[in-house]
Amino acid sequence: MRINRRKAQPILRRMLIPMVLLTLTEVMLLSGTFIFGGAIQELDENAKGIVQGKVSNRTSYLQNEMINSWSNVSYTIQVINETAEKLDQDGTIDLDNIGKNSDACFPLVSEISGNLIEMLRSNKVTGAFVVFNTDDPEMLRKQKSFSRPGVYFRDLDPDTSASVRNSDLLIERGSVDLVHSLDIATDSAWKPQFIFKAENEETYDLLLNPQEQGYKNPEAASLTELGYWGKPHTLTDDDKIMISYTVPLITSTGKVYGTLGMEITLDYLATMLPSEELMKDKPSSYLLIVKDAKTGDYMTVFSSDDSIVPNMEILDVSSTNNGELYFTGTDNERYNMDMEYLQLYDSNGPFESDQWGLAGAVKEHDLTEFSSHIMSYIIVAIILTIIMGIAGSVLVSFMISRPIHLVSKNIQRMDTKRKIRLPRTNIYEFDQLEESIEKLSRDVIDSATKFTQILNKASIRIAGFEIDMNSKTLFMTDGFFHIFGKEIVSARNMDVESFIREMKALEVYKEEEAEDYVLYKMPYREKEIYIRLSYSSLEDKRVIGIVEDITKTIQEKQLIEHERDHDLLTGLKNRRAFQRIMQQLFEKGETCLKKAALVMMDLDNLKQINDKFGHDYGDKYIQAAADSFRKYTPSNTIISRNSGDEFYIFFYGYDTEEEITRILSGLKKGIDQEYILLPPMQRLKLKMSGGISWYPRDSRHYGQLLQYSDFAMYQVKHSTKGEISDFDLGAYHSEEYISQNRRELTELLEREKVEYYFQPIVDAHTGEIYAYEALMRGTMPTLRNPAEILVLAREEHKLDKVEELTWKMATSTFVQHVRNKRIKPDCKVFINSLADYRLSNRMIEFIESECKGYLDHFVFEITEYAETDKEAMDVKRVLVNRWNTDFALDDYGSGYNGERILIELAPKYIKIDREIISGIHLNIDKQKIVENTISYAKERNIKVIAEGIEMEQEMHKAMELGVDYMQGYYLARPYTEPPQISEYILEQIRKDRKGIPTECS
Amino acid sequence: MMKRVYKAAVCLMTAAILCLTAGCSSAEEKTKEKESLLDPKKPVSIEVWHYYNGAQQDAFNELVAAFNESRGKELGIKVKASSLGNVADLEENVLASIDGKVGAKDIPNVFAAYADTAYAVDQKGMAVDLMGYMTEDEISEYMNSYIDEGKFSSEDTLKIFPIAKATEVFMLNKTDWDKFADATGASLEDISTIEGITATSKAYYEWTDSITDKPDDGIAFFGRDAMANYFIIGARQLGTEIFSVKDGKPALNFDKDIVRMLWDNYYVPYINGYFASSGKFRSDDIKTGNILAFVGSSAGATFFPDQVTLDDENTYPIEMQAFECPRFEDGEKYSVQQGAGMVVMEKEDKAEIEASVEFLKWFTDTDRNIKFAVTSGYLPVKKEANDKELINKSIDSTDDSVIQVLDASLTQIEETTLYTTRAFENGTDARNVLEYSLSDKASADREAVETAIQGGVSREEAVSKFDTDENFESWYEETLASLEKLVDNK
Question: Which residues contact A554 (CB under 8 A, 6 or more apart)?
Answer without folding.
Answer: A530
